[in-house]
Amino acid sequence: MVKSNKFLKVCRKCKAACCRMGGPDFTEAEMKKVLKAGHKNYFFEVRNRIYELKSKKGICPYLKKDYSCEIHKIKPLMCRCWPVFPMVKHGRRIKKRDMIIECPITKLLTNEQIAKCRKEANKIPDKLLYAALDFSTLSKSNAKLIKMRFDKFKKRELK
User: For 11-59, how does the pLDDT look when each residue is reduced to its tens digit (9 = 90+)?
Assistant: First the structure.
């Protein structure tokens, strides 16, 4: 979602907290797009054609030192919909219900931008969404760290 310098300033101020939750999961097509663009390969397959990123201390490897995104122009769907995320209950997606994550950028978004994020969030394939919520591929310490960071964000349901 972050496109303008105004948003980048906000992300830099919070040190890109959203990029400190392990990084997104990628479809095979998204992963190939990143590699084709010449970016370093940090991927490993966690499910059939679903890829996670090898991260250190839960930080996305494509997060640059200045807190900008190295792959911003080709970032995956899970990043494009931020700060909106599909609602999941008891391990299943609740169709047409989303939550918004209250990060510093949220208050700067217009209703139109939030609507666009919701549209993107609803494109996330179920198998990608469920893989992203399954921490079983992470070490216990990384899973705990990422969960702690995510839980710091307030969340509310979008109507």
Answer: 899 999 999 998 899 999 999 999 999 999 999 999 889 999 998 889 9
Residues whose CB is less than 8 angstroms from the CB of residue 149 and which lie 6 or more positions away in sequence, other chains included:
17, 20, 21, 58
Question: Which residue type sits at 75?
Answer: K
Q: Exposure of 91 by Cβ count < 10 A (0-12 exposed, 13-18 middle, 19+ buried)?
A: exposed
Q: CB of 22 within 8 A of CB of 34?
A: no
CA-to-CA dists, residue 26 to 12, 62, 77, 110, angstroms: 24, 13, 8, 27
Amino acid at 27: T
In the chain, domain spans: 5-158
In which region does residue 49 sit, left (phi positive, over 0), alpha (psi from -120 to 50) or beta (all else)? left
Token pair listed for 129? 């969404």
Half-sphere exposure of 110 (CA within 13 A, CB side): 3
